[in-house]
Amino acid sequence: MGLLALGTALDWPEAKTKAHHVRAWGIKQLLEIWNKAKVKERDAMLWGDEVEYLVVTYSKDDPKVLLSLRQADILAALAEDKTLAKEITPPASPGGTKPQNKYPSPVFHPEFGRFMLEATPGKPWGIDFKELLHVEPDMKLRRAIAKDHMLPNEYPITLTTFPRIGSPGVFTDPHYPVSGPKLRSQFVPDEIANPHIRFPTLAANIRSRRGRKVQVNVPVFRDENTPWPWKDPTVNYDLHSWPEDDDVRNGAAPDNFIHMDAMAFGMGSCCLQITFQAKNITEGRKMYDQLSPLGPILLALTAATPIYKGFLADTDVRWNQISKAVDDRTAEELGEKPLQNDRWRIPKSRYASNSTYISEDPRLREEYLDPNLVIDPEIKQQLLDGGMDDRLATHFAHLFIRDPIVIFNEDLEVLDLSKTDHFENIQSTNWQHMRFKPPPADNNIGWRVEFRPMEIQITDFENAAFSVFMVLITRVILSFDLNFYIPITKVDENMETAHKRDAVLEEKFWFRRNLFSSRPSRSSGSGANTPRSGGGSRANSRPPSPVGPVEDEYRLMTVNEIINGDDEGEFPGLIPLVESYLDSVNVDVATRCQLARYLDLIRKRANGELWTAARWVREFVKGHGEYKRDSVVSEEVNKDLVGKVIEIGEREANGEGFKGLGDGVEKLLGGF
Ligand code: ADP
Ligand code: MG
Ligand code: MG
Ligand code: MG
Ligand code: MG
Ligand code: MG
């Protein structure tokens, strides 16, 4: 995360009075960047991933597995290690390809949870196909380096969430009592958050702006012996330390939902993000739009979050829980009370799927946009007056309906147009599933687009597979000029669908039928940028359709149809498209073989041959001798689950493969 400047962070009542000031200066900074960078051309095609870890303490003899709160010490140990500052040569890729370049050593970052770490490559990856093969070894190296700077009983693991975070009793090392002044949570202590003033202030000001604690309610999974209706047995209705303790007495914890009350339950989850640099702003805007409809599909495919606070949930992914964990909307903005003090009703949390498209692509029909998009019309006018086009001005005028949450007094003295701090204040607390990242003020890099919905996977093999897949998809989009547009409200709907248990196999998602359709106003074929072989040519051989009703352009499809193509041969499937793209460019055999491993994993996750992590975790719990079919994930089950994940990690680190691990690991990772 950026924005780690120090200073005096304002409490909400005071921050609120400065919100307009920050927005006004943020817009000036944005226009400054925009005017400088809109003409930037020929930036290199670069990309980079972000992997987030939980740090746990585990030993075979200790009955408990705990979250280690030593983030700061681990980061300090990493920073002090002089051997890491040198360039390093990544280990040879699986398959024996020798990396040709040296890479600077990975970069480690703090995260919201004091039990989390983030790692990115030491420099972004380039366009060369061979570099795709360096991703997995680099991810493994990052994990090994992180582990080397931990205590012997600490491990970096890539489960999205710690299954028993917030359960009664001890779940952190060291242990702290609950209900601190910042979070006011009855389940997690303030010490769970990164102590840097930005993080507790973010949590406290979100709570304060909202007027009550956040309510993260996730439906409990109903098993044979789950009492029904189910009342979350961990909720304490008799606390009287803070005014917010009334929340549960006022109905914050409904029956049949696991109830959580703090930002840590959302922002304490780990994800896999990919940032792409485009060659210019036009290409960046196009990538933003075209990757948007893929968000929910990749969320369902990477599903990895079936447990919260010691209970099996009835959903498979983290997304909505994070959304609720940082939802700062007031009762008026939520539509629970008539508007009096606030400016508008806001349909979504500031953490949500994105609400608008931004490209000036002629294929973008008006009907794809949300007619109810909330924007700040004054901000939009300022952007238009500053020379920005309508569509991009609309996007930023939407992001700028939010208040800045963390404001440092020192930053409000002089407006510095050589910085982007006020713009980033709003931008970086709009956590949408895509982020359009303008160049920094000095313009030394280009326009970037971040793809944010994916859940972190248990192994680096899987994390590399999904990262590489997204890179290949992006190249296919650009070289075949694919068209994934559907109405943005259908993307929202898909995002909800992605939460359902086993959505990857059981649900259908809205998806565009013809990815090769050209501009709506013309009926000519799509010309030169078409694939030479594979499924794509089938779709392309259909006569281009004249403009019809938007509803005819998309239909419901399974993830398997979207990824692997449909049986009727009407929809080519994303993997066959990637294959035909790879056929059309020069990729050496060794590289192609490695890429095939990654595509194979994704193909099998989509067709059900392999399980998602969510499914694997559910099956692990169900198959555990101590599980009583009552939805409870006990300490013992939790310990064995984390133990298994550590064992998988050790296998991977030793390059031994995943065969013979038992406990369903074959269904998760197959013969890889
Ligand atoms: P944030 O947390 O704001 O998303 P990070 O710095 O954690 O940002 O991660 C950004 C990712 O983008 C990293 O993987 C990094 O390698 C990558 N990256 C950095 N510069 C570029 C660039 N110019 N183009 C594409 N990716 C980049
Ligand atoms: Mg992060
Ligand atoms: Mg990051
Ligand atoms: Mg950041
Ligand atoms: Mg990121
Ligand atoms: Mg949403």
From TrEMBL:
The reaction(s) this protein catalyses: L-cysteine + L-glutamate + ATP = gamma-L-glutamyl-L-cysteine + ADP + phosphate + H(+)
The ranges of region (Disordered) come to 519-551
Instruction: Name the source's superkingdom.
Output: Eukaryota
Per UniProt, what is one GO molecular function of this protein? ATP binding
Q: Which Pfam families match?
A: GCS
Indicate, by first and last residue, each region the UniProt record lists as having compositional bias (Polar residues): 528-542
- Tell me the pathway: Sulfur metabolism; glutathione biosynthesis; glutathione from L-cysteine and L-glutamate: step 1/2
User: SUPFAM superfamilies, per this entry?
Assistant: Glutamine synthetase/guanido kinase
UniProt-listed Enzyme Commission number(s): 6.3.2.2
Q: Could you give one GO CC term from the UniProt record? A: glutamate-cysteine ligase complex
Q: Which UniProt keywords apply?
A: ATP-binding, Glutathione biosynthesis, Ligase, Nucleotide-binding
Q: Which family does it belong to?
A: Belongs to the glutamate--cysteine ligase type 3 family.
Name under which the protein is recorded = Glutamate--cysteine ligase
